[in-house]
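Q: Hi! Curious about what MHYT domain-containing protein looks like structurally. Here's the sequence.
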Amino acid sequence: MQDMHQHYNGVLVGLSYVVSVLGSFTALQFALGIPLAQNVRQRWGAVLAAGAAMGGGAIWAMHFIAMLACNMGTPVTYDITLTLASAVLAIAACSLGLGIVGSGTFRVFNLVIAGVLMGLGVAGMHYLGMAAMLSSAHVSYDGSIVALSVAIAIVASMAALWLAFNLRGTLQMLGSALVMGVAVCGMHYTGMAALELGQGDTLPSGFEHGLQGQYLGMVIFAVVVVLLAIALGLSIVRQQRRAALSI
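A: Let's find out. The predicted structure is below.
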């Protein structure tokens, strides 16, 4: 069986990092509202908003755009159900982690537990998204690199949760978002390095109905950036109103 090699579209790789940074920054902004919530409804609203920005924007959108950036040497489409399930898993994992750490006084024990759960969820999202690939190639993984990618996901998750509840100030958040973008991309491309492809002959069922398109990566980037920008604007306005009322 002939091995196949991966090649990347540099523009989409760059866009995947940009969307990860914007998603991280938006999530950090929403996380400001978690400790300030006055009731359970407000707290979980802030948790879900931050989880959606982190899981859906910083992690899943980055992952899918980066997948589309990868030329695997054979036509590839993506199963719609598994792709959507991977997005839901990422959002749920990030929301769970934020909910655990944001419940009561910040504690290291909660951070570790939440980081492990969130990291496993993020890694699960990645490999579920990989399972969504529909192509004639035979897919296998290098177990040691898979383990490394999971470890990176857990450490990155702990760092993200710590930053979400210990940072104040726009410049600090921007710097942290830039670092988080590197961490998220690092996890993804480590996971991609674990992928081993062999030349196959038969296309799987559902191939023709899978997600595909020459400009799909750029379309997803544009849509997600617009949604994150709107969410970020609403968050900033809400913070300004809260500050005005407290004067």
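A: A fun detail: The mean pLDDT is 87.
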